[in-house]
Amino acid sequence: MQLDHDPACKVAFPVIDLHGGRALLSDNSQRRSQVASEIVAAGKEFGFFQVVSHGVGDDAVQAFRAAAAAFFALPAEEKQPYCSYDMSKRFRLATSTSYDGGETRYWRDYVKFSCYPASDDNIRSWPSKPAEFAPRLVEYCEAVQELAQTLLGLVAEGLGLDSGFFAGEHSSGDTNMSINYYPPCPDPAVTMGLPAHCDRYLLTLLTQADVAGLQARYGGRWLLVCPVPGAFVVNFGHQMEFITNGLLACVEHRAVTNSSTVRMSVATHVQPTDGCLIKPAPELVDEATHPAKYREFLFSEFLEAYDAADASREDALEPFKTHHD
Length: 325
What we know:
Layout: E1 2-3, E2 14-17, H1 22-26, H2 29-45, E3 48-52, H3 58-72, H4 76-79, E4 91-95, E5 105-106, E6 109-116, H5 120-125, H6 133-158, E7 175-182, E8 191-192, E9 194-197, E10 203-207, E11 214-218, E12 221-224, E13 232-236, H7 238-243, E14 253-255, E15 263-270, E16 277-278, E17 297-298, H8 299-309, H9 313-317
Parallel strand pairs: 2-3, 5-8
Antiparallel strand pairs: 1-2, 3-13, 4-6, 6-7, 7-15, 9-14, 10-13, 10-15, 11-12, 11-14, 16-17
Pfam families: 2OG-FeII_Oxy, DIOX_N
Keywords: Iron, Metal-binding, Oxidoreductase
InterPro entries: DIOX_N (IPR026992), IPNS-like_FE2OG_OXY (IPR044861), IPNS-like_sf (IPR027443), Oxoglu/Fe-dep_dioxygenase_dom (IPR005123), Plant_2OG-oxidoreductases (IPR050295)
C-alpha cells in the first residue's frame, strides 16, 4: 500500500495494489492476506481508498467512458426521450442545474440506470445511440462486477469472516450506475457538483479519469481525492456499516466543479436484493464488548428511510440504531 501525497490534492488516501486481481491474488495466500488487511485498515481509517492493478482492462474502461461521453454529446433532441425525474425508470437522464438547494446551486447532468445483469429489460432501456454504448457497457460492467466480488471477498477475509460472506443476497441486487457529467462552470465558487451524502449501497467503485473533483470528509475537513492513473476509487455504503457493526463506516462525500475542464465520473453501485435481511455479522458482535449497534431490517425498508432522510447520514442511520451506549 502507498499513500497519495500530491500536495495539490491535499489528501493522503491509500492506494492499494491488487496485483492483477482475483486470479493472481488467489495464487498467493500471503499476498492476499496482506491486501485484505490493507483494505480493512484503509476502510477503518478513511472509508475511501483507491485500487490499482485491479484486473479491469484499461481498454474496457476507456472504451466505455468514450461511449458515455459520446452520449452526453448527442444533440438535445436525441437525448430528450431519456429525460426523466421518475426514479422508477430503468434509464433516465436528468440535470441538477435547476435544482433549488437553498443557498447552493448545483451544476451537473447525469444518467442513472440498472447496468448489471444485462437482462433484456435493462438492455431495452439503454440508449441506441451511440451504437457502441450498450456493448461497451456490458464489457465494462462484467469486469467491474468481478472486481467488486474480489474486493468483497478481501473485505470479508480482512474482518475474519468467510471469504464468501458478502456473496449471494448481500451483493446480488441489480447493480446500478451513475454517470455524472460536469461541464465547465462559469462560477465554481457558487455551485456544487453533488451535495454531501453517503451511498445507500454496499460498495461503490468509481472512475474519475484525470480530472479531480471528488471530495471525502476526513477529520472534519473535506479532502480532495486526487486522481491516480488507471485507479478505481472505492468507498463503502451504509449497508457495509450495518453489516460490519460500524467497523467500516460509510463516509460523506461530495463533488466540486471547475471553470475550465469537463469532468465525468462513472460510479458503479453494488447492492443487496430488496428482500435481503441486513444485520451485523454475528462474528463481529459481542454483547459484552461490542454489542450490536443496529437492528435487523430488510434492505427495502432502508431504501424508504434513506429517501426520507434527504441525504442526511445521521437521519438515515437513526431508525436502525439499537442505542447501545
